[in-house]
Amino acid sequence: MKNNSKAIIVSMSAHGERLPAAAGRISTGKGTATEILSKSFDVVKNANLIKKVNASGHNSTLEHTYYNVAFEDVSVFAEQFIIEFRLASFTVKSRRYVDFSDSGYYIPELTEEQRAVYTEIMDKCYSVYSELCDADIPKEDARFLLPYSLHSNIICSLNAREALRMIRAMVYGRGKNFAEIKMLGEQLLSQIKMLTPGIADTFVAPDEIYDMPHFDFARSNVQNSEKVVLLTKTDNAPSVVARTALICDGYSDLDADTILADKKNIEDCINAVIKSDRPRALENAVYTFRINGVSLSTITHFTRHRMQSLLVPSLVTTDRKKYIIPDTVKNNLEILEKYKSVFADMAVAYDKLKAMGVSDENLVYVQMSGTVLDIVSTMNARQLLLFFRLRTCNRAQWEVREYAQEMLRILKKTDPEIFKFYGPSCCLSACPEGRMSCGQAAQMRQKWL
Known about the structure:
47% helix
């Protein structure tokens, strides 16, 4: 099997470097925006100005140029790395609905002996995955057997500033030790140099990048018993949200104190904020969760919510013996045994390949999408409003829905003045799912409101 992982810039902003150059001139030059743009045709002058402006720290001018990138047949491991860049837009081929039996997988650089062990376990993953699909196990459950070497395809759009930040992380940062990710970063940089050399000239290799800290404290074998733990939150969050809303409406501190002395007024203010088109006051309430036992598949559902701080442990340290078993598999004993055997064989293959000298960086592919780990997410109440609208919906993938429901249950007890108004979309307005609607809007409102 040949590796075909590629990062291809398929299109970009029509004006290329003219836009960031014009942006560099607009703050100090005469003329309207279009007049300045119409005079920004000199390629050399544009490139020199872009470099000068960015050297002075005004990197935002680069954000006016966009690249549209096709990531083709990259591994799911690379996908997870890529979609963590929150100022980019992504569309990924869904493993909930698409049959991936013939998608193929990434093979790192291995000896012939190592490669034989590697391909054997990967082929078994795909074989049993196909058996589950043929046995009418939903694809969203069968996908837990897909290896993390699985080929993924992504359409990504990002501005030049974020593109260079991504490349820096790929080539010199936390991706530098992973051959596939470093290669993708180098491919992107090479194309940017060809398409927009003036922008590429602003890219400077860092002297040093510090990776996430690693601690050598003793560990116990105690397992986390709770699915979700609220680690910390904004003190007096309901009052904070209501007060900032009143300030925004022009009230003095004295008036706000008088109004907020009545708990009913706090709830009325919050309800009005939630129903508004600009619920910015909610951003002043922040919540941090530890979310335990999340499958690698479902981590991608969390990652897609970009207005959050999400911490995912390094996949170098993943315990391949910990994995999820969906109910559809548990209810079929024959399927269950096959399912478990793949995870057991993957753990054996990992130990064998490690003993054969395969690096930790290449062993990240020797795990499956159903492998679980713990993550930390920090979101403000405005982002949680969107998160719960989407993820507590009956149409949401069942695993992320279970986590979202537990998070919402905790928050409804912790800060009921805010979260009594939260729930799936049908609880706040009409169901957006159209013909795919579950038809249970009334029951959902009764459940959550």
